[in-house]
């Protein structure tokens, strides 16, 4: 699919490198589990089944986890109107529109491709943003679909999910108790946990690096498509400020989906450093939008693509 969102070769290159490295890591991970568990059928079948489930049903899982529901035009005519205009300008298939009844102002895109995409916004976002700001946020999310980085992040996150599940299974299952009674089993279990922990850490860092860049690419593409980078900057500032005022306990359930959000529900904090963040800093995003605004002179008509 070729949309009118400006392509980003650096994003494409980063996605290719990330998938290649994660692919190598995935093969090594599966091979290590086969050697340690001595059952290639079980490992391959389970891994393939979970990968397929994540790829095909990621949109449903994300909507369910964030309490999102598909809404019709009669319920949210303004929201559907903005999506329709952006689809026409960007020459993209129309995504499914969903709303999550959450006070946290945010939005995300999910789905395996442009023909099976979902754009979800929270009621908190709709309540806080002006029409031009909402258009900027939705253009940002739709650019994720156009650039195909939503599907890449979904597939890329699979390896970390599997590694994490293996560690949890080893810690909390009956195998752990049995392993303590059998020295060989204990050794195998320790090796499985060590390999899984290493794989999780490496995949975590690779995905974070890609996620930060893809947010900058989406900001850039949305600003150029709409011709109003100042509106997107205003939405970023408003949403980031309002999220900071929401009680932390109300954001923790959403934190697991930070990599998919327009802005993170909870940041990593200065003590952990930017390397663990799913998003670039607000200052960096605003600085980029400021440069684009200067280039365009804010004179470009909405929808004009340079």
TrEMBL record:
- Cofactor: how bound: Binds 1 zinc ion per subunit.
> Is this entry keyworded Transmembrane helix?
yes
Principal cellular location given in the protein's record: membrane
Q: Which InterPro entries match?
A: HtpX_protease, Pept_M48_protease_HtpX, Peptidase_M48
Q: Where in the cell is it found?
A: Cell membrane
Its needed co-factors are: Zn(2+)
Could you list the residue ranges forming a coiled coil in this record?
Answer: none
Q: Give the residues annotated as active site.
A: 141
Q: What is this protein called?
A: Protease HtpX homolog
Q: Tell me the name of the encoding gene.
A: htpX
